[in-house]
Amino acid sequence: MRFSIFGLVANAFSGHGRWQRTWRDAVPRDAYDVVIVGGGGHGLATAYYLAKVHGITNVAVIEKSWIGGGNAGRNTTIIRSNYGLEGNTAFYERSMKLWEGLEQDLNYNAMVSQRGVLNLYHSDGQRDAFARRGNAMRLHGVDAELLDTAHVRNMAPYLNFDNARFPVMGGLLQRRGGTARHDAVVWGYARAASDLGVDIIQNCELTGFMRTADGTVVGVETTRGSIRAKKVGVAVAGNSSRVAAMAGLRLPIESHVLQAFVSEALKPIIPGVITFGAGHFYISQSDKGGLVFGGDIDGYNSYASRGNLPTVEDVCEGGMAIMPMIGRARLLRSWGGIVDMSMDGSPIIDRSPIEGLYLNAGWCYGGFKATPASGLAFAHLLATDRPEETAVAYRLDRFATGRIIDEKGQGAQPNLH
Amino acid sequence: MSRLSFGGLIDRAQPLNFTFDGMKHAGFAGDTLASALIANGVKLVGRSFKYHRPRGILTAGSEEPNALVTLRSGARAEPNTRATTVQLFEGLEAKSQNRWPTLSVDVMALNQVFAPILVAGFYYKTFMWPAKYWEKLYEPIIRRAAGLGQLSMEPDPDSYERAHGFCDLLVIGAGPSGLIAAVTAARAGLRVIIADGDWVLGGRLCSERHVINEAAAGKWVDDTVAELRATPNVTLLSRTQIFGAYDGCEYGALEQVSDHLGNIPPGKSRQRFWKIIAGRTILATGAIERPLVFGGNDKPGVMTASAAATYVNRFAAVPGRRAVVFTTTDSGWSAAEDLMSAGVQLAAVVDPRTDSQPPAAARLRQAGIEILSGAALTDVHGRTVRSVDVLLKDGSRRRISADLVLMSGGWNPSIGLGSNLGDRPVWSDLVHSFVLNTAPPGMKATGAAAGHFSLSGSLADGVRAAEETLRELGRTSAVAPAPLAGDEPSASSPPWYSRGHRSKAFVDFQNDVTDADVSLAAREGFVSIEHLKRYTTLGMATDQGKTSQLNGHAVLAAATGKSIAEAGTIMSRPPYLPVAIGALAGHHQNTAFRPERRTASHEWARERGATFVDAGLWKRAQWFAHPGERDWLQTVSREVSMTRSGVGICDVSTLGKIDVHGPDAGILLDRLYINMFSTLPVGRARYGVMLREDGFVMDDGTTARLGEDRFYVTTTTLNAAKIMQHIDYARQVLWPELDVQATSVTEQWSTYSVAGPLSRPLLQMLLPDLDLSNDSFAFMAAIELRWRNLPARLSRLSFSGELAYEISVPASHGEMLVRALFTAGDAFHAVPYGTEALGVMRIEKGHPAGNEINGQTTAADLAMGRMMSKKKDYIGRAMAERPALSDTNRPSLVGVRPLGGARLRAGAHLLPQGRDPLAANDQGYITSAAYSPSRGQWIGLALLQGGAARHGELVTVHDPVRGPDFAAEICDPVFVDPEGVRVRG
Amino acid sequence: MRLPCPYCGQRDSREFVYRGDAAPTRPSSEEGMYDYVYLRDNVPGPMREHWYHAQGCRNWITVTRDTRTHRISAAVLAREDSR
Questions:
Q1: Domain extent listing, chain B
Q2: 246-305 of B, contacting A, C-beta below 8 A
Q3: Beta strand pairing call for A290-301 and B790-795
């Protein structure tokens, strides 16, 4: 059923009894052209683009619990393409372009809202690093503006300008950045993929891979039986290593917990996204009114979807330092997501060394914004065995060749990215 | 006034004035804002989130979803504050929220007209056309309508503090089971912390009428609290809410230090954030009463039965004149009796159960109260309650007039903290709710939190919990039995909701989620409990589902034909109750956000008019302006020129300093640096570069050999801690067989760079006995000596490219040294210079620094490839040989100078001349830039593809975020004294 | 989280710096260096890992911690940790 205001009104008169399931509750079939492991945003987007762009509709997405229950539903919903390194900028801009048309494409309101992303700087060195990044963005056709203190003060007068340990000197602004409603992205892709024939199979956990004698992956073993597949794509960020281990692979990835926080609902105060990198803090405000904020990962390997107080304190300290007016707003809820921290802070979209097995992993804390482009690129790879043009840098062998993409320059220490 | 003239825990001798929406009211000490509002006959207190429906007071506790107000005003305004937990104080000021223009006439209540459209998830189905209208039109309307209270937008004027607690046993909750557990453990000698969010201890014993040891329960509470207060091994924290359980038996708690005071006394904090490490924990958090789901159950005048009993018993505040009690529990009957005793007329008691009724039923029947068994309340009429419809056992409906509805749907143990660490609660058919199955390490639930709803059961369970804890901790003391208490019946029916209702029946009050929304979500496939929550926003309001979650489960189960246990469980995440962000940040506010590190010369520099700059946590002198100087550039240029022509002095104490000693010190350094150190002669220093194991440059600095087995390593300022950690890793983990120690001495030494052609005679005045001539103290010499009988270190190092020395003394005498240097320096017109001039001179000399050693560059990129020893292994050697790192086309270090007078800026990119500004033409960027007084123009360092081979080539400097393109010439990165004559002078 | 530093006793995790899996050992030759630097087992379960007591005794310690529950079962000085 196509969504529109007319449909909504019509349904209102009939007590909303005619709305159908958002996506079909599929039962696994014996075989598919492609099985995608992981019903998060990336997996569902991959299935959608496989069907829509490549006409491959004999596709199943298997999800161990409920779709969008991993990082797709545990992030802070920020979208942006303010990356500076070759290999990243074009990819994230591809994603941003897809965000800009996503709702019409999916016929689902994912509340994509381009209210701007502002990165604050506090020193000459930071300013110059931001300029380097902003210039790289502009060279890729991405919008970027370097603001001075006065301009930032005008935009966000409530920041701490006059009594700060690290005074605000300006910011790098991407006006096209913003937020999207994370759950709606999942449901929108699920609905659209399902409508094109993709089977979305929840409560179906991967337990192993079906392999031929030469090792080729020809399907998956699940808690709901064996499913044969010509190709298997893995999009299980947070658990990539566990799944790869089932195929005997070790990855350049560690699993870490990233916490996020939301305050009680408040009347609108912060229009866009503001990041205070020097204080490990970033914030936006949801349409419901909650201040959505976060900071660094906890910093130790973890598969427990929860964190600890040092990070809570660190994040709130950063918040108070930059926005002393949020002191009396209350933290309502905190949560943790398990993220794939890769060895250079950048993702992997590549064939694995095993025939038939494809990887989409290593998204660190930046997977949400990449959802559309990641799906598009992974679908392209699965369909054609060649990387999509904006994702060529995300090779698995880049660590061996040294073609790493290290935006922060921290090296092979995942918790520093 | 609806205040009883007797009873309650209020002090009628202490009247308190307060205002609500500007209207003056009076209450008593001991009131909450909610009880005072009730006593003043105020029914309408707030508006709901989506439909802006009028709302009153639903509960008497922290689970309140409706009665949210903005407390105080101005910068101290505190939005979304629960009226039910605010202790009344003189002059209290409260305002209703989420309404315009007034609480009783709220324009946004128009939303109710559109309610048929505004069902769960309606926004996902519309507002998509045209695309650009979302940000411009739809979203701003939604954002303005949403949200609850308003922040003042002024900085929080209050201060917050942190405290740490350590105990053998933490008791969470000071109700009957918590108090008995705490006193039992305390008597056996355990260090006990007992915390409760309320300011009055006793929990339900303050709200209900009970007898313990043949006296009013209040006496037992008073005695027990007095005993706890008198026991030195007990810390009793009232007004303290434990809000989260964390790893390592750590608990977060918030103590409201001054929230109950009209004005915070000077020097006192508003709140205190506790971090408590508890050997064992007893969760005695009680239970929360479930509302019932029926039409109009959200209207002002409908409240939980326990809340009504609390208002009557604890606050002597009467919430209505004529009540209908709708209960599926025995406790609802007790509440009915309490209200009757307070003079409230009971119109009827409605209980859908037919099988069992508590003894109270007989007593009420005897008193002539109408009992409607097997019946259910379906709808409430009136803006505030005026009458109710009851569906009778025989299927007929009856309208009963009333102004108060009590509802009692059963009890949910408050086990939120028990699932913070991932333990999944399980459904109990006995308790008709979720209970803990496993709990965080060291935690056990007791009392109502463990499903023991009767008082006697609760007390006995509290003793058991304490006994078990003592046993686990190896204490064998005898334990007193629980006191005698009445064993009132406490049965309830499974979660129940009315299906015969005609008006909206709310599951989540604050977020306006109705039973129809839950059913719609189920119809659309959102049948996972997590999907339901996200799709309908059930349980995501400020009460975090405390009153709504289980009813939502029940409706979902009914809609999907499953049992509640099958419908799934939701685990609770911290915080249990919302916590002010300011409290979590503690004292880390404003300039105290992070500590400030100062060097020994700080005070001296301040006297000399220094402007300071942040370098990590350090404050360093950036420049020393003279009166009359036009701008910083003039100042810095003067500092550079005077240093290059005379002598300048700069505090370089912030560099990391590490003593590495032991027979294998040289071997260790060989493995850490790309170049050799074991061959360094004693008394000499050498510049060294360290790689990370992945082959990229990690840090650089000079290392001096002060003895056969003693080296003095320096690091960059920002990497000091990291390199210390790296060296310790190398010697402890990688090569523990090496006999070598390392000690950070960054804070121990104050170091000054004395640079310029006159540095030698200046230093000579301080060190008259030392031969500083080239022959005896050549470039890169490094020795230990004494100055004014203090240990000192002197080396001949140069970052500026001039003849220069670095002299160090113990930091305690650093200020003495800088003053002595300038006393001696007077004769030479010595100039102090700051980090800016330091940076200019290093750029003039082409030395890489933080901007170039950015974690993305190799030694070869920085023209130091030749330093990489081929004779030894060292960290990073193997990985530095990877193809992409040894690619000769990598961007490498060059100098840049603009044609004409243009200003270079770091961060600008470099394009070949005449090419379009496209990523494909991006060949590098400027890493550092400065105005060079020595060259009379702006100069820069850059990383450029092809690097050194392109000296002399013209490129386009592309800096669109700051200005137009201009042309520049690529050149050698050394702009001053390329032959290095001066440093050796 | 609290870590049982073998030298200092139970200390708050805030005093420590985390490095990661203690299992990879640095090879003495180039062979195996890529695995050592980049590949991790990323164990879901008990894992031996390196923490540095930066604000304490400055010892590197090997902590055995379950990555699913964060529960800690052992800690020894890394230099004494038999590999």
A1: 1-152, 160-287+413-472, 291-409, 504-578, 600-654+748-841, 656-744, 888-985
A2: 246-247, 250, 252, 275
A3: unpaired
Say how many C-beta atoms besides its own lie within 10 A of residue A280's C-beta: 17
User: Quick one: tokens of B361?
Assistant: 């039923």
Core vs surface per residue B946-962: b (16+ CB within 10 A) or e: bbeebeebebbbbbbbe
Q: Does A123 touch chain B (CB under 8 A)?
A: yes
pLDDT at A24: 96
Q: What is the pLDDT of residues B5-54, one digit of tens each?
A: 999 999 999 999 999 999 999 999 999 999 999 999 999 999 999 999 99
Please confirm whether the linkage preceding B15 is cis (ω < 30° from 0).
no
Structurally, chain A folds into a number of domains equal to: 2
Question: A333 vs B925: CB contact, 8 Å cut-off?
Answer: no
Give A10's pLDDT tier (boundaries 50, 70, 90). confident
Residues A240 and A269 in one domain: no
Helix (H) or strand (E) segment spanning residue A182: helix A182-195
CB B259 within 8 A of CB B270: yes
**Chain A residues with CB-CB distance to C48 below 8 A:** none
Cα B376 to Cα A14, B390, B498, B502, B518: the distances in Å are: 27, 6, 7, 13, 21
CATH number of B600-654+748-841: 3.30.1360.120
Question: Which pLDDT score is estimated for B107?
Answer: 86
Does the CB of B441 have a partner CB in chain A at under 8 Å?
A: no
> Six-digit token pair at B978?
């390329």
Residues of B in contact with C58 (CB under 8 A): 724, 728, 744
- Is there a contact between B146 and A285 (Cβ–Cβ < 8 Å)? no
pTM to 2 decimals?
0.97
C-alpha to C-alpha distances, B81 to B65, B92, B272, nearest whole angstrom: 10, 13, 18
Q: Both A35 and A172 in a single domain? A: no
Q: Identify from A330, A407, A410, A416 which residue to disrupt to test chain B contact, counting B C-beta atoms within 10 A and taking the largest count.
A: A330
Which of A302, A310, A413 is nearest residue C67 as measured by Cβ atoms?
A302
B881–C60 C-beta distance less than 8 A? no
Class for the domain spanning B291-409: alpha beta
A248 min Cα distance to partner chain C (Å): 10
The answer to whether A259 faces chain C, any CB pair under 8 Å, is: no
B566 at A interface, C-beta within 8 A: no
- Shortest CA gap A134–chain B (Å): 7
Q: Is B149 on the interface with A (CB under 8 A)?
A: yes
